[in-house]
Amino acid sequence: MGAFLRVENLTKNYGSFTALRDITLDVQEGEFVCLLGPSGCGKTTLLRVIAGLETADAGKVYLRGEDATHLPPPKRNFGIVFQSYALFPNMTVWDNVAFGLKAGKGAQKISRDGIQTAVQEALRLVHMEEQAEKYPAQLSGGQQQRAALARALAIKPSFLLLDEPLSALDAKIRQKVRLEIKSLQQSLGITTVMVTHDQEEALTMADQLVVMNNACIRQTGSPREVYNHPNSPFVADFVGQVNFFQNIPIENQSAELRQKLAGSHYKLKAIRPEHIHIAKTQDEGIPVTVVGIEFLGSGYRIALTGDVSGVHNETFFMDLTDSRFRQAELSVGDSIRVRFDAENVFSYRLDADPQFVKAA
Amino acid sequence: MPKANPRGNTAQKLLIWGAVLWFALFLLVPLFTLFSKVFQDKGGAFIGLENFRSYFATPSLVLSIGHSFEVSIWSMGIAVVLAFLFAYGLARCKIPCKNVLKNIALLPLFVPTMVHAMGLISIFGRAGIVTRELGLDIGIYGKTGIIMAEIFYVFPQAFLILTIALESADFRLYEAAAVMGSGPIRTFFRVTLPGAKYGLMNAAFVCFTLCFTDFGAPQVIGGNYAVLSTDVYKQVVGQQNMPMGSVVGVILTLPAIAAFFANRFSHRKGAAEEISSKAIAFRIQKQPLRDMIYTCFMGLSDLLILFLFAAVFATAFSYKWPQNMAFSLRHFDFDAKLINGGSSSFMYSLLLCTGTALLGTIIVFITAYLTEKTRPLAPVRSSLRFCSMLPMALPGLVIGLSYIMFFNKTDFSFFGLSIPNPLHGLYRTVLIMILSNIVHMFAVTYVTATTSLKKLDKAYEDAAESMAVPPWKLFLRVTVPLSLTAVIEVATYFFVNAMITVSAIVFLYTPDNKPAALAILNMDDNADYAAASAMSICLLGMNLAARLGFDALKKRLAIKHESSNKAAPVKQVG
Q1: B568 CB within 8 Å of a chain A CB
Q2: Is A86 an interface residue toward B (CB < 8 Å)?
Q3: Where exactly are the structural domains of chain B?
Q4: Among B88, B387, B38, which Cα is nearest to B241's?
Q5: Rounded to an integer, what distance in angstroms lies between the CA atom of residue B512 and that of residue B428?
Q6: How many CB atoms lie within 10 A of CB B237?
Q7: Contacts of A245 (CB under 8 A, 6+ apart)
Q8: Cα–Cα distance between B89 and B294 in angstroms, integer?
Q9: Among A94, A114, A81, A83, which Cα is nearest to A184's?
Q10: Which residues of chain B make contact with A151, given a CB cutoff of 8 A?
Q11: pTM
Q12: Three-class SS of residue A338?
């Protein structure tokens, strides 16, 4: 078994609620893996089973190829950062970081100087040397987050677990800390598993993205793969924006698209807003009406209606860059024609994720 | 698939089983002994429901059931209404010197209920000042006296509960009501009262249970008006009829248990209506007329309480109240009054209270920690939770009675096999009184402890585990330091209440081992009200001193923690 961390056929129930259903996942050494999914999908439970903080009802956990299913958490040698940070408010940052070294089970083996050096090193990594004597309540959210990271790293873990580490931060700081964590992870080369419900966070940070829903893994792959080739309506919808159509009329489409539509048995089609374009000529694409214009800052999102599928007047979205929008001079009520980017149309079975199938 | 828990912390499991053993030995088995006594004759032979038959065939005993209900319902009704008004004044009105008004109203919590009754006797009794000077005899001995004494007793408890209920209202509801043009009366009935519904129910439950099970006040002022609690005492101490005492004890317990379950049930139903974390604190607006009325009401309530205490003081310090009101300290010569347990009873009280506070706080906190913060043995822990709350429904008399029955047995026989009782050695010691007190006060202190522990981040345990820090180190280094306020509150409650409790230990003390509260009862039995009053004052002094000491400690620890947090400038953008 080559994987650094492997979970195999994990299943976990809480009474009648299934939190994990037959989960299998490989994490390579040095990889940054994001578990992404809506709340209640089982991603945090999976992280806690990997940590040993929960026990699965069935299945195995392997660390470096060895069965670790029943290994207690301290023996798995990981560092963890919680959503709440769980810093001890009655201790300074220094004492928090040193706690595992002083009070942990291996504490006798570490000399006083060893602790000193380890804490200093951990604080240096997160640029918190200056704040060592402060109490958690005196720190900003971002500093608390870094203190928690230092505490997790101080015990020299062989892998790192992050449970929604950024969700308590303001949007601006979140972007900054996101970069910091990623570059720290890369420079240390430490295997990391992070749980998040924020798709942007997951896309920007992950080497491997694991999309979960209803206790199952729906897709794994690099962020690019998952975004560009979502394997199901759920993933297409959860990662990024997407429009669904049941029957796209073949007439007036490009030859390429016509071929694609005709060749597929799968009746549910999906396309992202950035892959819909304004038609260049009057006999290309399908006629639609502009019903709304949203300014997004970097561009525009245009709400359109038209008889795209069997459903009359359904609304869907098209994204335009600033320059394209100004070229087109769109306003609400305009009738235009749009064309779909053939290679970026996804096809799914109607029964794949029934919630995305609209009643005709 | 084996479900071996990787967090199967052996020490925690042992502690959990230890807590089970604690409840088994000091709550469940004694209770079982008591309940099984009900079906036995004096010799211990099984006689089925014969005891109940003879109980219900004795009209004088059956009468007490009605009496107990009557005084409890009256006291509860009056006390809850008065307490609601008082709490409304505290929580919703602009009142000068609020803290002084509140603290005076808390005074009745620091003395045994016998003292309220004694104060009433000094005023309205046969030799009371009102009776003698005004020639007005209101017939204080009996129903009237019990109800009045109980109101003094439960009023502070009720207004504390109701103040919290009224303080935790969401001000946005009041703003919305005002915007919609709702007048003050409509707002009161549509917003204020429904918001305080659970507080009111809880207060009613607490008042009813306290009055129903109280022993001190009816014993002192009840006269010939017997209630269930005095019947238990009469049967056990007066007539040495243990089986009949147990029958009355069981009858005394049943309504309390019914009320306990009703209260729990209603709370479970109401849990969804809890106030949201986004609620805005109530902002008190000035309303001169309303504020004046409430100030007068609260002042008057305090005056009545002070008047009662003044009567106790006057009785204690007069040469002979009320004939000769010359100042005298002769009633404070306790050793001349009682052959056993004069001044020495203070030492016993101090020992009892310190022991209860120390041991009780430790046991309660460990139990709360085990039920809230550990993971193994979930079903066992939820039964621990139930056992912790159960004492709320158990009268002190019943706990005490079950203790003598269990601990004075030298051996148990199971199917002809005789096993010596390993705990018989506790009988007639101060330790058994301490344990009885701890069990008696377990529910209230346990709630305080769990509430505090619930506020701590659950992830502390996970974080410690990831760092290979053993749970006990986390408990000592983080959990306890962060719960210090609650620890001190629990210790205070144990200390103050161990000082004033009579019911849980009235069957357990020995002549050499007599706490002050029981010395008061003895003096009262000897009709020496003056000495009993004098001792009550000493007891009040000790309790107030203890409370102030604990408060000072709490403040010091709190400031220490906070100042360390304020040492450096607070926010820095990270």
Answers
A1: yes
A2: yes
A3: 1-30+351-504, 62-271
A4: B38
A5: 10
A6: 11
A7: A268, A269, A270, A271, A308, A309, A316
A8: 6
A9: A81
A10: 463, 467
A11: 0.86
A12: strand
Residue count of chain B, please give it.
Answer: 574
In three-state secondary structure terms, B272 is helix
CB-based burial of residue A115 (10 Å sphere; 0-12 exposed, 13-18 middle, 19+ buried)? middle
A280 within 8 A of A215, measured Cβ to Cβ: no
**Chain B from 476 to 495: CB within 8 A of any A CB:** 477-478, 481-482
Contact B309, B119 (CB under 8 A): yes
pLDDT tens track for A308-342: 765 556 789 999 999 999 988 899 999 999 888 88
Q: Do B121 and B140 form a contact (C-beta atoms < 8 A)?
A: yes
Residue B37 Cα, gap to closest chain A Cα (Å): 41
CATH among 3.30.70.1140, 1.10.3720.10, 2.60.40.10, 3.40.50.11540 for B1-30+351-504: 1.10.3720.10
Q: pLDDT means per 10 residues in chain B (574 residues)? A: 50 92 94 89 83 90 94 97 95 91 95 94 88 85 95 96 87 87 87 88 92 94 93 91 90 88 73 58 86 95 96 91 84 73 82 96 96 89 93 92 88 74 82 95 94 91 91 92 93 95 90 87 86 92 94 80 40 32
Token pair of B97 as six digits: 């010197």
**Separation between Cα atoms, residue B250 and residue B394, nearest integer Å:** 10
Per DSSP bridges, beta strands A78-81 and A159-163 are parallel
Asked whether the beta carbons of B30 and B403 are under 8 A apart, the reply is yes
Name the CA dihedral angle for B366, B371, B372, B376, rounded to a multiple of 10 degrees: 110
> Which one of B462, B473, B572 has the shortest CB-CB distance to A53?
B462
Angle between helices A93-103 and A112-125 (to 10 degrees): 130
Which tokens is A261 given? 């539509």
Show the tokens assigned to A313.
């007047």
Q: Please list the alpha-helical segments (H only) found in A81-189.
A: 93-103, 112-125, 141-154, 171-188
Q: Which residues of B touch A72 (CB under 8 A)?
A: 6-7, 465
> What single-letter DSSP state applies at residue B274?
P
Chain B partners within 8 Å of A90 (Cβ)? 478, 481-482, 561
Q: How many CB atoms lie within 10 A of CB A360?
A: 9
Dihedral sign, Cα of residue B511, residue B517, residue B522, residue B526 = positive
| A/B interface, count of CB pairs below 8 Å | 118
- Taking CA–CA distances from B479, the nearest residue in chain A reads A88
Q: What is d(CA A100, CA A151) in angstroms, rounded to the nearest whole number?
A: 8
Q: Say which residue, B501 or A360, is predicted with more confidence.
A: B501
**Radius of gyration of chain A measured on its C-alpha atoms:** 25
Least CB–CB distance from A84: residue in B459, B468, B574: B459
In the block, residue with structure tokens 């460990």? B366
Distance CA A71, CA B465 (A): 12
pLDDT digits (tens, 9 = 90+) for B210-231: 999 999 999 999 989 999 999 9
What tokens were used for B518? 């029981």
- Tell me how far apart the alpha carbons of residues A48 and B96 are, in angstroms, rounded to a whole number: 54
Q: What is the pLDDT of residue B568?
A: 36
Q: Do B62-271 and B1-30+351-504 have the same topology in CATH?
A: yes
What is the fold of B62-271? Answer: MetI-like fold (1.10.3720)
**Residue (of B335, B67, B324, B354) closest to B214 by Cα position:** B67
- A82 and B478 in contact by Cβ < 8 A? no
Exposure on the CB side of residue A305, measured as CA atoms within 13 A: 9
H or E segment and range at residue B367: helix B344-373
Written in H, E and C, the secondary structure of B63-88 is: HHHHHHHHHHHHHHHHHHHHHHHHHH
